[in-house]
Write a structure and sequence with these properties.
There is one protein chain. With about 325 residues, the protein is an alpha/beta fold. It has a single domain, classed as SGNH hydrolase (Rossmann fold, 3-Layer(aba) Sandwich), CATH 3.40.50. About 35% of the residues lie in helices and about 5% in strands. The chain is built from ten helices and four strands. Strands 1-2-3-4 form a four-stranded parallel beta sheet, with helices on both faces. Helix 7 links the parallel strand 2 and strand 3. It is globular. The N and C termini lie far apart (about 40 Å).
């Protein structure tokens, strides 16, 4: 099956599955919220689901990321390291910061941790973090690998082309902490009362965990979002793995509070943050599909992919020393 057909099939399945859910927001919906009050579980205004690579009448679609993007993939930071700027100024944070002393210490300890696989990273996110549009194309040949990054693609190839329990349709920063999304959801590798996050960490032993959440969160819910994000980060750190966070390109909450919450967590823990928002600012419409401005364009997807690839390169260079 061709890449185009394969992406189309996955996208249609994604859309049909989400359409069956009661509430829709961005590419996924929160169907179960642990320990959140009723106000926090109020759903956002229903919106159509992104279907990468398709063009269906009446549906906003995201083009398949191009293997020949119209920009230079090598991103050169022009701002100080994020740790010198407060979270309120997250827009000025680098796309790819240098690894902090804390991050370097975590990675160096991981080298000697027999419970971690240095070639494995896990993904925590919704369907936008699945391999069909996120990093997998570097392994399959669908995306052009920038000069100097081949070794990183090889090093993390299984994780780039594989899937994580914690990156799937309908998952969010709270549902990855809910056992109902583990074994009861069909993840047979999970134990009966195990959360998807704990199951992912136990079965895959990642040395790095990529966390990209927020597009499908409820409006004005930054407090609950940040609370659950901190729990996720703490669970990852408890295993000895390095969490890497990322901003999102959209502003569906209309006040930028979710990106600021993500930046606050990264700042407080001194963790790497991939500033996806900044990486797409010079693209037409800031890399978003109009008029809803929720989904990345093809060039936007590739900016995101290259930004993540570059931080993974920095991680690999520490792990191989």
């Amino acid at each position: 099956m061709s890449l185009l057909k394969s992406l189309l099939v996955r996208s249609i399945v994604c859309f049909m599955s989400l359409a069956a859910l009661t509430f829709l927001s961005a590419c996924s919906a929160e169907t179960k919220t642990p320990e959140i009050n009723p106000e926090e579980t109020a759903a956002a205004t229903p919106s159509l689901v992104v279907i990468p690579g398709t063009s269906t009448a009446g549906i906003n679609s995201t083009p398949i990321p191009s293997s020949t993007p119209s920009f230079t993939p090598s991103i050169t930071p022009t701002y100080p390291p994020f740790s010198s700027l407060k979270p309120f100024y997250w827009r000025d944070w680098q796309v790819n910061p240098d690894l902090s002393p804390e991050a370097l210490s975590i990675l160096r300890n991981a080298i000697n941790n027999p419970n971690l696989d240095l070639h494995v990273f896990s993904k925590v996110g919704d369907c936008q973090m699945t391999s069909g549009t996120f990093l997998g194309g570097f392994v399959s040949g669908a995306y052009t690998i920038p000069d100097g990054f081949n070794e990183t693609v090889t090093w993390f190839s299984d994780s780039m082309s594989g899937e994580s329990i914690t990156a799937a349709i309908g998952l969010g920063v709270n549902s990855v902490l809910d056992p109902l999304f583990g074994l009861p959801a069909g993840n047979k590798q999970c134990q009966a009362v195990e959360t998807p996050l704990d199951c992912e960490l136990r079965t895959r032993h990642p040395a790095v965990v990529l966390i990209a959440m927020g597009t499908n969160w409820i409006p004005h819910g930054e407090a609950s979002f940040e609370k659950y994000l901190r729990i996720v980060v703490d669970r990852v750190l408890a295993t000895g793995a390095l969490p890497i966070l990322a901003t999102k390109a959209d502003n569906i909450e209309e006040d930028w509070k979710l990106d600021q919450a993500i930046a606050q967590v990264a700042y407080d823990y001194n963790l790497p943050l991939v500033n996806v928002w900044r990486s797409v600012q010079d693209l037409p419409n800031h890399g978003l599909v109009s008029p809803k401005n929720e989904y990345l364009t093809g060039d936007g997807w590739m900016r995101r992919n290259y930004a993540w690839l570059k931080i993974l390169e920095k991680v690999r260079l520490v792990l191989v020393k």
